[in-house]
Sequence to fold (198 residues):
Amino acid sequence: MAKTPAASASNEAPSEGPVLNGAPVGGATTKGRPTPKRSEQEAARKRPLVADTKEAKARARADLAAQREKARLGMAAGDPRYLPARDQGAQRKFVRDWVDAGWHLGEAVMPAMVVVILATFIPAPAVQYYAFIGLWIFILFVIGDMVITSITVKRAVKRKFGEGKMEKGLGWYAAMRTVQMRFLRLPKPQVKRGKKPA
Fold:
């Protein structure tokens, strides 16, 4: 049986999908473009695990800043989850409360140094000399207060927690807190002055 030109053309044309009565079924249409190579397909499928965009980096920085701020506020409030190792534990908290409940000469060390620095601008050698002498005498009193605070704190810890359960370094921990101005201490004071912990 002889083939007509139309039949020959239809047989030679490649099929792009199922055809019914000469029309594509299911919306199948010709691609109109060459099939991509395998290497091109694999390259298109590859995506970075972390988005390398300005928006993603900015969002990551914002999240990190929020976490740091949360940790800072938690530490300032004395939240045990955010305290460093040196501030952890019930005994350390007791020592902080003991120190914060009292008045200490060490809190005035920084203001005293500022006064001495200002005194150096006065064109009077006698004023400068006595300012330095007064500062050193004051520092000696501060050291005495640190020693007394260290001894009294350790005694208070022994009474509260027992003789053999006292942690090491509590005296030094208390002494160093006395030389910090109250509003600069971290964790922030949790007790008012005059209300020492029992």
Q: What stands out?
A: Residues 6-15 have pLDDT under 50 and may be disordered.
